[in-house]
Amino acid sequence: NYFIDHYYGQKLGVEPTTGSPSNVLFEYGNRDADSIIKDVQKGILITGFIGGNSNSTTGDFSFGITGIVVENGELIKPINEMNISGNAKDFWHNLAEIGNDPYLYSSWRIPTLVFNDIDFSGI
User: Fold this and answer.
1) Residue 58, Cβ neighbours under 10 Å: how many?
2) In the chain, which ranges are E strands?
3) What confidence score (pLDDT) does residue 48 get?
4) What pairs with residue 71 in β-bridges?
5) 33 contacts 73 by C-beta, under 8 angstroms
6) Residue 53: pLDDT above 90?
7) E-strand spans in 25-73?
8) Mean of pLDDT values over 19-37
9) pLDDT over threshold 70, residue 123
10) Does the pLDDT value for residue 46 go beyond 80?
11) How many helices (H) and strands (E) does the chain have?
12) Count of CB atoms within 10 A of residue 55's CB?
């Protein structure tokens, strides 16, 4: 078996397998990002990360993010240089929904993920 990511899969004309020996796998849900966003009353759609840190012993983390404010199912305004923080164990226990729209251009085919009760600062 070979580790073939999306880029090299396209160059070689074969299906991608993975880009690394470590994969994150999710069972996909039933809705795409657009239909999930329509049900969000107040939230943040994270579109990117801009650095941060985590403690692998305690699970505590803090990351800078970019994204879009969501209110009543509508994308309201872009945000930049906000912070998301918490504990990894608590964070994953707050996973509320998984979308059916994995990002296909990475070995981590992660779909839209919805979390409840996450700490943000900077808005």
Assistant:
1) 10
2) 42-54, 60-71, 74-87, 95-98, 113-115, 119-121
3) 93
4) 42, 74
5) no
6) yes
7) 42-54, 60-71
8) 84
9) no
10) yes
11) 3, 6
12) 11
